[in-house]
Amino acid sequence: xxxxxxxxxxxxxxxxxxxxxxxxxxxxxxxxxxxxxxxxxxxxxxxxxxxxxxxxxxxxxxxxxxxxxxxxxxxxxxxxxxxxxxxxxxxxxxxxxxxxxxxxxxxxxxxxxxxxxxxxxxxxxxxxxxxxxxxxxxxxxxxxxxxxxxxxxxxxxxxxxxxxxxxxxxxxxxxxxxxxxxxxxxxxxxxxxxxxxxxxxxxxxxxxxxxxxxxxxxxxxxxxxxxxxxxxxxxxxxxxxxxxxxxxxxxxxxxxxxxxxxxxxxxxxxxxxxxxxxxxxxxxxxxxxxxxxxxxxxxxxxxxxxxxxxxxxxxxxxxxxxxxxxxxx
Length: 329
Known about the structure:
This protein is α/β, with parallel strands linked by helices.
């Protein structure tokens, strides 16, 4: 184990750990530092590969390296972020950039990204000072559950959230793109499937915009619990049904709209599932697509039979509105 920079762990830090392979530790460390980490810790199985029994004990005693707790395979890079960095909003970018390492000839391994507080302080209160009401579209404003906010216009709709460590507070470009896309396609009384619901923000927005039935799914139990709590904050959303599920596997519910704010690599296997579940003329809205993956997703959508209606862009992130055409189109 080695520490690349000295980190003074105090009561106000959050750690983010990326599970990767030895060859990628320096690249992953760069990504984490580039996104505001104050230091990184690297645990690499290869650090132990050539060690022989020696004086590794705390008191200089002879110790077999195999008896020292360590990773048996691969590596883990842990970054430490101060309160000034709102960690839930950078997690999608970390995942995206780690996955992209493969295109540079590096093996990112599983690329699993996890986060946790490293102190006894309640993390929820730690980041609240950095999360305020945000007007994300013409009609939709995301409001923290602890804030008092008065609508500035008569047609302004409020989404109350207490996102915790789940994705989707409305401020990240990928979430904003999907909220804008929903405003563009919702006409009222549709059935919508929300794949990778995160905090539930898109499902709640859909109900505010007039969607009839909403079914939300997420593979992460933490996200499911977060979404369920956020539904309670928005009475109009009480009919939303949220269940843990891996994309749309096993889902038989047909829909007029399917929305997915997830990484491009996960959108690819979702495309045929979405096409099967969509009614003819229905819309598939997807985001989480970094610029260099946009052409790939468009190609996959068109190959499946989708027509591209709109492409939306904020910074380096793309959102796509596709639809399932009528048989004679």
